[in-house]
Amino acid sequence: MSKPLRIVFAGTPDFAASSLQALLNSEHEVIAVYTQPDRPAGRGRKLTPSPVKKLALEHDIAVYQPLSLKGDAEQAELAALDADIMVVVAYGLLLPKAVLDTPRLGCINVHGSLLPRWRGAAPIHRAVLAGDKLTGITIMQMDVGLDTGDMLYKVETPINAGDTSGDLHDQLAEQGAEALVTTLGLIRDGKVEPEKQDDSLANYAHKLEKQEGEIDWSRSATEIERQIRGLSPWPVAYCSLDGKTMRIWGAQASDTSSTEAPGAVAEVTKKTLSIACGEGNLLLTNIQLPGGKPLDTAAVLNAKRDLFPVGKQLD
Known about the structure:
27% strand, Methionyl-tRNA Fmet Formyltransferase, Chain A, domain 2, 7-stranded mixed β-sheet, single chain, alpha/beta, Rossmann fold
């Protein structure tokens, strides 16, 4: 039987921690972890370790937090670990060619989309925003390009009606962890079959910006619903209610048309709130009033229905 692999793991957020946990549960040996430096978090802006660092320390694994891997000292430190392979999951640092070539079997990446469809920082969100029906996980052999390496293993998952980026993030984190362990077994046994990417099918998944949350009511209800799902749980879609920010956490598109102008309240009942759009209406299901908490729209209307008369304009 082939020997377990000696692995250096590089990752930072919860998505990466799922893969690290799977490795810790596997036959393979995680000999070191690389993660981003501790960052200020919370109201007190206290320096906080990443989810990956916390998990590594719980298992007494050596943790490295360089600001860069471009320096000779950092590269020599990595080489001294004598790893068979480096697993990279949402690490947040670019790996120079010298680093990619250091482990005996190179570096592999757990990517949250079906490559080459979405390359870049926010593949899960961009898939929802674009209205894709399918997403998944790609385990990729890393090269010097941005998510351009050979594909080693893929797992597909549908994007169902109502799925938010947060929902898919959690699903794909689990699927990515399972796919990673499977792929490592194939690599160890010499059974992996690399597949080249078709660059002509690639799109760049730009990093999310807060201003992308602003709703343009002249767009169709279907597009705005995707925007709301794609930007949940961050940065969250929003509009203006009486000059203040109202966040929208949940909504359903409707083919029902309205004579009201886009952005105006088209219909309101004890439990439902419908907003006119450029095409169709949008039924708001979960909203956050200025200064309040996210609530089912029915609960908001029960207390403050007077805020939403028919014809009221949301900017």
